[in-house]
Specification:
This is Oxidoreductase alpha (Molybdopterin) subunit. This protein has 773 residues and is an alpha/beta fold. It has 31 helices and 33 strands. It folds into four domains: 73 residues, no CATH class; 283 residues, 3-Layer(aba) Sandwich (Rossmann fold); 219 residues, Dimethylsulfoxide Reductase, domain 2; 125 residues, Barwin-like endoglucanases, CATH 2.40.40.20. The strands form ten sheets. It has a six-stranded mixed β-sheet. It has a six-stranded mixed β-barrel with strand order 25-32-29-31-30-33. The structure holds ligand MGD (2 copies) and molybdenum atom (MO).
Length: 773
């Protein structure tokens, strides 16, 4: 079935974020679900006690009860999952793989929910139906036939529940490998790596309540109006009560400028709106580390001036003395960094940094939030450590209304890590698993996403299992990644919806259709709850509300248990008994994972329970027992080695981002309301000066070619230029269409996260054949 699409148009959007525009969009998603009556009930149960956790982002719930707790994009996610359209055996009989490959990602997912297990047996071009037991037997046969368990990789996308994730990692380790790549490798990995080293925990230190107490909230590299819309309300409240909201973002994102609150009847009726920031800075891509360094430089300067006058300066020297290590070295590196380098790299004026530093110095309580604009760069880990250094200077970690807030992406990506989905597991986790289950865990590090692709390319990984997600499209260097997947002997996708990862497969492939967050999950002991953890480390239960579209779908825990039982039998763990009642899985989690004692009982609290954050209480689990200033020089050049070795200079630096109507590789429509685009995703936002400098015209079609120090040509064809309010030298386009441009070897130091926000590109005349509409 062909999904709806508007004609291509670009008109800058004049209205505030959310408000009536959002309501119209919710109504559209709801009607298009093909089961509006069922879904209205579902939407009202979103994020309510006894209801289900919203399958969209990882933002937490307001402690206040009794409100509507879903946003526009949450409603889209719910209606997209709870659709009446289904993809069954007849669909695959009618459509060969080659035919399906001709369709775009929007079309593929629009076809509906996957309703029965399907098998591509290596001989033809069509999937055929297969029974569940037979499917499990296929997987077991392949896994048992590998020369080593490390020839398999078990990928996780961040929607998997805690129960599913715990079982999955337990199975991988019982089978014998730490090859557990996950979407976090492409997402907030840098945050985890940086914070673990700096403050001894990889998670954010703030809670929802802290936002109401902060005097200033800094938002770096994040677009909450689209990706965390429920965050707009606490930001609006902050501005309204006189707190500072300071944005660092090269684009003027509408949700960070003006907001019409759907929860505010007066504002809706009068069509009013609220300002969303008190200062807005537009740095160069990758320039945030230099910007933060500039703020630190002012803080040290003002401290010296104050000391000369015998006054109190901005530094919290008591906190630094009691809690921190490495202060002197940090002061030196800040002193040594020149203003010339700071201004050139940050792309900001000295007066702008001074203004940001003033706000920083004057705020008693301050929160720093960030997302992909910070984490998807080559030097993301140093940047996040620089942010941490800045907060440590003023004792802004571990007190109410203050702290670090990496705003997570997928609704349970943080929980999946807590449950042990990690290619570099902590030894304590492996010790605890061994003690509880009595088998010995593999101790070598496994592979992350980038290393998985390299290993598949070289034939070292031969079986790929995906617990959700869309590995073929979300990853970098698309044609190369596709060839890597095609070298596998078996690829297995546990999924809710059809996507390209079902079409770009190993020699054999399986589609295992699973229940989603909205579906009622019935097991032997009755309907089950699963649990998730949000960005604020709150763990709570989620109950599916809707009758599943097909009786052939199984829950993620049931599918994992089926695979594990067929592969390993019952000796180590009685997998099938565990899924009869998920309370049994939670009892195991309680035994193994710190902070989950009495798990089943504590879930009964409305709103769930808080996993303590040691750094939030000023306990520093680092090797020195202190919070560490970690000292890095600014990078010599933001262009990384792979590009610098190449003689050609880039025309522009490209970031890849999300439109308002997508969830990662899931495309809800071809529109991007706040950026004014309708009906097209193959667009390239650029500054008009740059467009002319490069010899092109607004609305002309171009090819985008990226630069790297190898002989691979990385090109995407036929993108329409849109003259846009974007700093000179920068360009932006949507992910995943631009993923063929990201070289696999271009990743963050220490994080291995593809540099999706910094791609050196050149523009060429379009070589795309005109598309027939
Ligand atoms: N509706 C919806 N919700 C989502 C998602 C979705 O796709 N759709 N995805 C989920 C996931 S997995 C994630 S990780 C999050 C993603 O949430 P975001 O991180 O907000 O997502 P992006 O669209 O990648 O936006 C990055 C923002 O950073 C800015 N930026 C880019 N480069 C830089 C830079 O160098 N410096 C600065 N200061 N800013 C920069 C961009 O202009 C953009 O505003 O959202 C989650 N929630
Ligand atoms: N260029 C570029 N690349 C990026 C990014 C970027 O900003 N730029 N962002 C990166 C980020 S932050 C992330 S998190 C990754 C995302 O990478 P992934 O998490 O792998 O991708 P998604 O698009 O979220 O996966 C969508 C698919 O998940 C399946 N699915 C949905 N719900 C469920 C469920 O409940 N259970 C199961 N089993 N399956 C389900 C559906 O079949 C759907 O097609 O992409 C990364 N890639
Ligand atoms: Mo993400």
């Amino acid at each position: 079935m062909r999904p709806p699409a508007d004609r291509f148009r670009f008109h800058p959007y004049q209205r505030p974020a959310a408000g009536w525009g959002a309501l119209r969009s919710v109504a559209h998603a709801w009607r298009d679900s093909k089961q509006p009556f069922k879904n209205l009930r579902a939407m009202l149960q979103t994020n309510q006690h006894g209801g289900f956790d919203c399958p969209s982002c990882a933002w937490g719930e307001a402690p206040k009860e009794g409100r509507i707790r879903f946003c526009e994009n949450g409603a889209k996610a719910v209606n997209w999952e709870a659709t009446g359209r289904g993809v069954d055996a007849a669909f695959f009989r009618e459509n060969s793989i080659d035919q399906l490959l001709k369709h775009d990602d929007y079309w593929l997912e629009y076809q509906g929910r996957l309703t029965e297990p399907m098998y591509l047996d290596g001989s033809g071009n069509h999937y055929r139906p297969i029974g569940w037991d037979e499917a499990f037997a296929v997987i077991a046969r392949h896994l048992k036939g590998l020369a080593s368990p490390d020839e398999a990789a078990f990928y996780t996308s961040g929607r998997a529940s805690n129960e599913a994730a715990f079982l999955y990692q337990l199975f991988a380790r019982a089978y014998g490998t730490n090859n557990l790549p996950d979407c976090s490798n492409m997402c907030h990995e840098a945050s985890g790596v940086a914070l673990q080293e700096s403050i001894g925990t990889g998670k954010g230190t703030v809670t929802y309540e802290d936002f109401a107490r902060a005097d200033a909230i800094f938002l770096m590299g994040q677009n909450p109006g689209t990706n965390h819309p429920r965050m707009l309300e606490p930001l609006r409240e902050a501005v309204a009560r006189g707190a500072q909201v300071v944005v660092f973002n090269p684009l003027r994102e509408r949700g960070l400028e003006r907001f019409q609150s759907p929860q505010n009847a007066l504002q809706m009726l009068t069509d009013g709106d609220s300002a969303m920031n008190t200062a807005y800075f537009r740095p160069a891509l990758g320039g945030d580390m230099a910007a933060v360094r500039g703020i630190a430089k002012f803080i040290f300067q003002w401290q010296r001036e104050a000391e000369q006058d015998g006054a109190q300066g901005p530094l919290d020297l008591e906190f630094v003395a009691a809690h921190c290590a490495g202060f002197e070295a940090y002061r030196q590196v800040v002193d040594q960094t020149s203003w010339g380098q700071i201004l050139a790299q940050s792309g900001l004026q000295r007066a702008e940094l001074e203004r940001a530093a003033h706000i920083f110095a004057r705020s008693e309580r301050l929160i720093f939030c960030w997302a992909m604009g910070i984490t998807q760069h080559r030097h993301s880990v140093p940047t996040i450590q620089e942010i941490t250094n800045l907060l440590l200077l003023r004792g802004q970690i571990g007190k109410p209304g203050a702290g670090l807030c990496p705003v997570r992406g997928h609704s349970n990506v943080q929980g999946d890590r807590t449950m042990g989905i990690a290619d570099r597991p902590a030894p304590e986790l492996l010790d605890a698993l061994e003690q509880r289950f009595g088998f010995s865990c593999p101790r070598e590090d496994g592979v992350n996403v980038v290393k998985t692709i390299e290993a598949m390319e070289e034939g070292r990984i031969r079986v790929f299992v995906g617990l959700g997600g869309n590995f073929a499209q979300a990853t970098p260097d698309t044609p190369r990644t596709h060839r890597a997947l095609q070298r596998c002997q078996l690829t297995v996708q546990i999924s809710t919806k059809l996507n390209r990862s079902h079409l770009v497969t190993g020699r054999e492939a399986l589609i295992l259709p699973c229940l989603g967050r909205t579906d009622i999950d019935r097991q032997l002991s009755g309907p089950q709850a699963v649990t998730v953890e949000d960005s604020f480390s709150m763990v709570h239960a989620s109950f599916g509300q809707l009758q599943p579209l097909s009786s052939q779908m199984r829950s993620e825990p049931a599918i994992i248990a089926g695979i594990a039982d067929a592969t390993l039998g019952k000796d180590m763990v009685n997998w099938l008994a565990l899924v009869e009642d998920y309370g049994r899985i939670r009892d195991l989690i309680a035994d193994v994972i710190p902070g989950f004692r009495d798990f089943n009982r504590r879930l009964e609290q409305p709103g769930g329970f808080y996993l303590q954050n040691p750094a939030g209480q000023r306990r520093w689990n680092t090797d020195l027992g202190k919070a560490k200033f970690i000292t890095h020089s600014l990078p010599d050049s933001l262009l990384n080695e792979g590009v610098r070795h190449k003689a050609r200079k880039p025309d522009l630096v490209l970031q890849t981002l999300r439109s308002h109507d997508q969830f990662n590789t899931t495309v809800y429509s071809l529109n991007d309301r706040y950026r004014g685009v309708k009906g097209e995703r193959h667009v390239l936002f650029a500054n008009l000066e740059d467009i002319h400098r490069l010899g092109f015209e607004d609305r002309q079609k171009v090819d985008i070619v990226s630069l790297w120090n190898d002989d691979i040509e990385r090109r995407v064809q036929g993108f329409t230029l849109i003259a846009f309010d974007i700093p000179e030298g920068q360009a932006a386009t949507y992910y995943p269409e631009a993923n063929p441009l990201v070289p696999l070897e271009s990743y963050g130091i220490g994080s291995y996260t593809p540099t999706s926000k910094f791609i050196a590109i050149r523009l060429e005349q379009s070589t795309a054949p005109e598309r027939i509409v």
